[in-house]
Amino acid sequence: MPTETERCIESLIAVFQKYIGKDGNNTQLSKTEFLSFMNTELAAFTKNQKDPGVLDRMMKKLDLNCDGQLDFQEFLNLIGGLAIACHDSFISSHPTTKSSPPPTPSTPALSPAHLPQHVSHACWRK
């Protein structure tokens, strides 16, 4: 029986596979597929954005090889960046003691600035 972590990894792979291929490439998310993913799987995040260009900027920042698509590694950079931002928000708003279990984190408003620093690259600065 898979562990919770193994199920989470399987889930990430399944979600990525669910969105790729609609635009003809079965290994990468196109911009259209990325937007579909964001508007469906991360709808609360998308709805909370006041800047309509934030998703375009995120796509550019995540697209490390500047090919206009996101491969699985680039997709994982998104997931990792969001997880880090959520964790940081959780830690800052819910100090815990060793005797009390932490409450469930809420999803903070995120932006491209919340993505890991290593995803900042030459094509993002263009």
From TrEMBL:
Keyword Magnesium (UniProt): no
Record-given protein name: Protein S100
GO biological process: regulation of cell population proliferation
PROSITE patterns: EF_HAND_1, EF_HAND_2, S100_CABP
Task performed by this protein: Facilitates the differentiation and the cornification of keratinocytes.
Family label: Belongs to the S-100 family.
Species annotation: Mus spicilegus (Mound-building mouse)
Cellular compartments per GO CC: cytoplasm; extracellular space
GO MF terms, alphabetically ordered: calcium ion binding; calcium-dependent protein binding; S100 protein binding
One Pfam family from the record: EF-hand_1
